[in-house]
Amino acid sequence: MSDAPHIAQKAPYPVDLVEGKTYFWCACGHSKSQPFCDGSHKGSTFTPLKFTADATKTAYLCGCKHSAKAPFCDGTHKSL
Ligand code: FES
Ligand code: FES
Fold first, then answer.
1. N or C: which end of the chain has fewer CB within 10 A?
2. Gap from CA of 39 to ligand 1 centroid (Å)
């Protein structure tokens, strides 16, 4: 597996987050349960990004895995 993350999709995933709940965003791009980690990163240099939702809301989590503001989409997918 290379050092660059796999592009799961060139668009964010809308997800309903629950305030106070902890999530593990897939950083490697290989999870079958996008945008969350399913353990597929094992054996690579990637680890999931753990974060806790600060509000109950719909969030747009990065699907391209190249966002500078991961786990959130920052629009970088448009230039890939
Ligand atoms: Fe991608 Fe775990 S499956 S970080
Ligand atoms: Fe990755 Fe938008 S989906 S920056």
1. C
2. 5
